[in-house]
């Protein structure tokens, strides 16, 4: 099954994992399995995977609500799979004959055809009864170049993303707008037929030249067998000729509809790959939704993580500000940072031990020492001031050192959070670049000012609530 082999690398990992296969192993050998049996297998896999996504109890209700439209689409796709339906969508500029082409396939005028610019203003879908059990549906879309048609163009792209097979219709050599749109459509990994309509306007020689040009321009985007020439609308043509007496004569020639090549290609694809296409499309969309769910969950975790980090920042800043013993400051700070990392690890579902947390802190602080040694110089000066006053810290001195502790915990928390979000891995950047990026994103002066004010506010508030202390 060539289409399955070519696009299986785009299937989500959770789909492949659900059948215990890797991206390299997920192919069903065409030599040993019939197209029908293989298609049924793909449909079953996709159906099970969609149900798994819909029934996943780990997804919070608020995320389901925020992605309600996408979940509705998945339910619709599940119903489509269970009924064995296949969706074919036409795509192209205004007036290239998209609606006429669909009417020709249906054998009756159902889709709107008009000389008005942009007559197709919304998505329209009709059942194609001619093939099999009527499980194929043809979808018309607005033109991609309509004036003030940004929303309709977006809708057409969305339909292309949902379709199992795309018919990209042109009426001559590709314009720049069409070529860019074709690249967008083919990037969705849906099989695409490039239909050159209205070819009755060209001579046989001109058609051969046009076919050669189109194959060259679309190499890597459209397979040669998927470039199809059609005449979707019959019309009468006036012809001037010279008779045997040398006089000009006028006659009318009928130009009939000719879509036989398109029908043959469609039937070949549907027979060989129809069920697989339907399963693939649903799986690709479900994979997109799964990724979106993951991003939403990660965003929520980052929001909670930010609140957690801020809470530990304040706790550490106040602890350092109030502690009269310099060495104890550092020990308390390390313990607080370790507790924060363990807290974050539970939030991200990647629990780690206190030893792992301590090792991570040492790595982060080591990089911070190399990249921002001045911060620790302030930290040591503040500690010396505490020691010089006999262990009795003034509020301002304590707040200054507390602000530095607050800042260091913020950096540790942000770096640890990124490490956890990447699955307890530094990724390609490594710890030094990650710490450097975090430090560059923070305005140290403003952060220290913010921290100092927050600590002082907390201390004053505490003093008011506990006048006896």
From TrEMBL:
Q: Look up and give the membrane topology term.
A: Multi-pass membrane protein
- Localisation per UniProt entry: Membrane
The protein's UniProt keywords, in alphabetical order, are: Membrane, Transmembrane, Transmembrane helix
Q: Which InterPro entries match?
A: DUF697, GTP-bd, P-loop_NTPase, Small_GTP-bd
Residue ranges annotated for the G domain, each copy included: 88-198
Membrane as UniProt keyword: yes
The record's Gene3D superfamilies line, in alphabetical order, gives: P-loop containing nucleotide triphosphate hydrolases
Asked if the Swiss-Prot or TrEMBL record annotates the protein with the keyword Transport, the reply is: no
- PANTHER family given for it? TRANSLATION INITIATION FACTOR IF-2 (PTHR42714:SF6), TRNA MODIFICATION GTPASE GTPBP3 (PTHR42714)
This protein is called GTP-binding protein
